[in-house]
Amino acid sequence: MIARQISLTLLAMGLGSLCAAPAALAACPVTGESPMEIATLYFGRTIQGHGLVSTSDWAEFTAKVITPTFPDGFTVSDGSGQWLDSKTGKTDYDPVKILTIAAPSSPALAVKLLHVMKAYEKAYAQESVGLTTVEGCAGFDE
């Protein structure tokens, strides 16, 4: 419980930085790039006692939650993660879906990220969804 409270506090602190005025970035190195926030979310696929979030479950979640929230686009890849179970002291392994989004930094971005995270936690009985954010540059040549 304490570990979860610490995790939620750290998450709130990290998302708070998205709400602050963006720091002045040096010019992006490639013509056509703009300063962006790069958010990566980590969705564990193991449902405690019920198997895995299936490919069709993930496709449905993507269609109903992620796509409407981030209609400008995103990238999804598969991964494998590990974490320490604070209750048992055992290291557990989990297949994951990794969602990467590049978007302008704003309070609205923080709200959208939290929306997706909470929707997944609720839909698939997850304790948490991992999140990392970094400032960077991105461009999408059209």
From TrEMBL:
Protein name, as recorded: DUF3574 domain-containing protein
Keyword Signal: yes
Keywords assigned: Signal
Domain of life: Bacteria
Cross-referenced InterPro entries: DUF3574
Pfam family, one: DUF3574
Signal peptide (residue range): 1-26
